[in-house]
């Protein structure tokens, strides 16, 4: 999806798009902060176990690995592309790690191999999107199927560790049950926060970040001003593959096991988190802070709703409505101004 | 394993008559307990849980909240806990993934539940969370699909029927129908489904007794009617001489039965595990001669009593320990065998055919 | 143009714009022929391995199995050519199929009403998608992603652990799913008629041709006086209605519906549309291509089983073939564009 896809016919004119900057972004994040506070108040009122260290730890276990994938997805959507293969890559990396462990590899070689395959898979996406100019939505639906398929070839009906396999080392699988020393955070949360900080710096304080914004807003202009658009996009997909592989390794260790179905169907959750975080599907707009808030809101909501026995299907409805309301509110101001200007004209234009 | 229930009306009827069902099946004599004692003929609960504590909270975590088979089982569990003066919380996701079940395990820990009864979507991925729950003093039980966690946590598997018996019964049923000769195939659920794979393992062993029957392939319908039908069609194209299909999952067998009943030119014998309510029409029109299952609500009921007994300390997971399961009578904990730890078996599977299918309402 | 040309270097005879357009049309049709050819080749290769694949039964399966995806691909094509996307169709199918089934369970409707109700449910959802997209000027990907969750959640609340089974549905209704006329399945006939009507309309009527204009350049279309908002709304309405109809037909074909029916179909349909040569950026592509794309995907799936390839390999091969199809399509369209530019360039030079 390049920047001009999804510019609905009724989409906002370029001038409007370009004028969106920090201030609007911060307004969006301000809204998210309000939502977050509301969620936290609601949670502590509804559930006696919500305000506890274990909630923070569990939320990290549940959403940490998904949140990791949201970081490169933010970058990719910023440039007007999309990566739907993320969850399949998570599954492939975990499956490869399990496959190699099953065949007697050491834990570190297995992990490194999984990460390498992540980068290679990302490179495949990257080459097809950046250098043959294929639409990323189409390419990554293809690799979504391909990566999951390869994972299935590797493990099939096997869950690793299988019969006779050694367990994964305790020193590593403890990340699924223990928080970091001296805190309530899970290892996955800490990893996410560190990478989010790094991503925030890259996106908002480096020339590379500015290039991402530029590509999302005006690919041609970015290209003329010396940004190597294809190379940047290629790199982003490689990073995405790598981070998703990290998420796959993380999930495998958290669960102390892996089967080929790991992470099935999470791609749209990742996209939803990023979009709710205020990143524009048109590209060019969004902040890591917004995505961070979005992650916390989704993580907290899931904890509250499960603690208070809200059925899973109602949780789906709530997710959908939140997403819907968020985009409507985001565009509400523009709608209002349009209505106002039409009223001012007095409807005499037609 | 996904099971499916037919009409809404039937389902409702079942809910209201849940008590009667248990009694009915017992009366029909199709479900003598393998380790059972006397069973009560009255549908009325006797609340004979021994010294089971009042006010117990048991988390039932099904494969997903919508799976009709599991809904029946959960209702059985609710009935058991109601008789004992406790309560059941049913919590899970909408899709069959371990990731959707982990938050429910966490919620059980945070709510200081007394026991968890889980139908695992993954044999291993839930082990760390369940182990944490066990360390917090929660008794862990599995049913329908077992976890495979070694000793961490210690858990009791409430088995619907002896795993080996399920596998061998299905092969024997099919062998009779096709004269022990010809190509056969298996239409299973997901390739990673633990219980199905265990049964298929025993099917393969049993097939050695029938040298003229050849298992050509196993295909996976992922417990989705559409996928099941599509792989079935492919199967029929790929193996024109196919004589029989075993489908050890209710979605698979009913999808296959629907196809075969509308394509009479395809002569393939079909058996497996199915819900009588769903298979009745196909048995009556001759598409399916015989198939097997047990009553899911009884399974949940048994699991509920087992959970209460463990949580009350009136039973242990030690081999030979006994506990009472309300109207089902008393049960004994079986010794660990192979992959399976301590377990309790509901009873042998019931085989359904034209002569008895009208007796079963589930 | 830096790449080597395979086009004839000889002077091209002067062409009018009309014939250039005609030639483009011919080439587009050539692509549809190419797709059809690919299906035939696939069938031939599979038959070489397994002669039974060419039986009447098997051909009926190929036609039937791709019908539902093909039907939804028609609606999705209408939406995608306007530079939008509809991700809610899988959930719409599920909801429609269940509600129609539930009405049969209660003997509330007769057979024909089943289709009417299915279409109506889909149309309402399509209308909501379209209205939110158009009125609030929100990217349709976000809107329909949110609707994907919300509708699936509502479906779950309604289904509530129940399931529709064959015995509850009128025999005459399920007959549509398997009966044939002169060896051609009913399901295929219904879908073929709709594809033919939609295909004819898209080529003929001004209002439908305007969809392409909107997709090519929303701004230009608006400037040219095309009521873009209304057209896009109708595209979503039709997409929803066809997904609703697909739900009613799903019930007829599979005679079993649970809360997960249709999950993940949206990505399959988008794949079919892309394989069928519809540009994901909008502006070009035909419903015939999309329908053939659906047929090809289904043939791939059936062929893999019929060729007795292990189930573990299915997904990986399907993914690889999908990528190959997208890449091939790109290569073909680049050749076409190059040829066209060359002829046009030659024309201008003269």
CATH superfamily of the largest domain in chain B: Response regulator
Low-confidence stretches of chain B: 1-49
Question: Number of folding domains of chain B?
Answer: 2
Largest sheet of chain A: none
Distance between the termini of chain B: 16 Å
- Summed over residues and divided by their number, the pLDDT of chain B gives a mean of 85
Radius of gyration of chain A: 21 Å
Tally of helical runs of chain A: 14
Q: What is the succession of H and E elements of chain B? A: HHEHEHEHEEHEHEHEHEHEHEEEE
Question: How would the global form of chain A be characterised?
Answer: globular
Oligomer classification: heterotrimer
Largest interface, chains and sizes:
A-C, 63 and 64 residues
Mean pLDDT over all positions of chain A = 88
Q: Into which percent range does the helicity of residues of chain B fall?
A: 25-40%
Number of helices of chain B: 11
Assign the structural class of chain A, choosing from mainly alpha, mainly beta, alpha/beta, alpha+beta, or little secondary structure.
Answer: mainly alpha
The structure class of chain B reads alpha/beta
Q: Please bin the fraction of helical residues of chain A.
A: over 70%
Keywords (chain B): Signal
GO molecular function, one term (chain B): carbohydrate binding
Signal peptide (chain B): 1-22
Protein name (chain B): Rhamnose ABC transporter substrate-binding protein
Question: Quick recap of the structure?
Answer:
With 350 residues, chain A is mostly helical. Chain A has 14 helices and no strands. Chain A has one domain (14-333): ABC transporter involved in vitamin B12 uptake, BtuC (Orthogonal Bundle), CATH 1.10.3470.
